[in-house]
Amino acid sequence: MNNRLSELLAKKTLLIVDGAMGTMLQSAGLGVGECPELWNINRPDSIRQIHEAYLNAGADVILTNTFGGSPKKLSMFGLAHRAVAINRAGAQLAAQARESCGRYKAALIFGSVGPTGELLEPLGTATLEAMIEQFAVQIEALVEGGVDAIMVETMISPEEAIAAASAGKTVQESLPIVINLTYEPTPRGPRTMMGTSPERFIQMLSEQGVNVDGVGTNCGTGADDMVSVVSALRGCTDLPIVAYPNAGMPRMQDGMAVYDESPEAFSEKTAKLADAGATMIGGCCGTTPEHIQHLCRRLANVR
Predict the structure, then answer these.
(1) Could you give the CA distance from residue 75 to residue 156 in angstroms, rounded to a whole number?
(2) Is 105 helix (H, G, I), strand (E, B) or coil?
(3) Residues 6+ apart with CB under 8 A from 11
(4) Model's pTM, two decimal places?
(5) Does 229 reside within a domain?
(6) How many CB atoms lie within 10 A of CB 8?
(7) Which 8-state DSSP code applies to residue 31?
(8) pLDDT tens by residue, 4-58
(9) How far apart are CA 63 and CA 107, in angstroms?
(10) d(CA 177, CA 289)
């Protein structure tokens, strides 16, 4: 764990992560089928303003607008050749926002790394070597842009998540990396779509000798269903645990997912994740700076 992350965790027993980037981009005019990451180049002021809004709401951690920033994912928009520029710009915009927010200059910037959209062999056609290379291109650009750490998030395949972590360590051995899988409630307890339990994932990290600086979960569910994931992880690891749920479960309206959970209700439910053992808590789909502001107030004594 690098000095900045460990120092901040030493000062605060609980860190607040920011909220949804996609929700804010949609509010700012992101069109259906438009590449969110390209806004790092075409609409940098909008991205900076979103980061600043979350920092001013009280976030200790902000995530770059690079969730779909791997060359493979960007190839869906014909933008694979711009992966380095898009990711570097995403990191730089977050750094600029942090610099402009005065008392929040101690906030950490995590480079957001999401799934490539491919499946590893034998379920898919992607090789492990090719996937690591994809992530390495993205992560190297994020490091060049100035991120403090990497957040591998919304992963349903533990193997792909581990590939991303491995890529990060090839870029910079000391680079802090946190892995978040997305779990669903099942009669057997929380599982990824691939059937992996939280306990099994921790075991896989150990078996493969993958050293990470935190584990956790995001997206997929609201806070109520996420408590069991955090409890399971806390029962089998001493690592920092990250959890950022959606603003409840979505409903479809005009072809779009709409999240109705109010900031007050979200903060009340999400606060329970701290009791379950989470050390970094924020919001995913449907959350806004107002959700994060309420969460900060709700957890002020814990922090």
Answers:
(1) 21
(2) coil
(3) none
(4) 0.95
(5) yes
(6) 17
(7) P
(8) 777 777 777 899 999 999 999 999 999 989 999 999 999 999 999 999 999 999 9
(9) 11
(10) 25
- For 150, the 3-state DSSP assignment is strand
Pairing of strands 256-258, 214-218: unpaired
175 in a domain, yes or no? yes
Whole-angstrom distance, CA of residue 245 vs CA of residue 49: 23
Q: Domain of 74: which CATH number?
A: 3.20.20.330
96-137 pLDDT, tens digit per residue, is: 999 998 766 789 999 999 999 999 988 899 999 999 999 999
Alpha-carbon separation of residue 199 from 27, 30, 100 (angstroms): 38, 38, 41
Residue 122 burial (C-beta neighbours within 10 Å; 0-12, 13-18, 19+): exposed
Q: C-alpha distances in angstroms, 223 versus 38, 67, 300?
A: 30, 21, 18
Residue 303 lies in a domain: no
Tokens of 61: 């951690």
Q: Are 181 and 158 in contact (CB under 8 A)?
A: yes
Three-state SS at 109 = strand
Whether residue 190 lies inside any domain: the answer is yes
Domain extent for 253 = 3-27+35-298
**Number of domains composing the chain:** 1
Of 133, 120, 25, the C-alpha closest to 71 is: 133
Contact (CB, 8 A) for 154 and 115: yes
**C-beta separation of 266 from 223 below 8 A:** yes
Specify the pLDDT at position 3: 58
CA distance 275 to 224: 12
Q: Which residue has the tokens 């898009």?
A: 86
Using alpha carbons, list the distances in angstroms from residue 14 to 11, 161, 192, 212. 9, 24, 26, 19
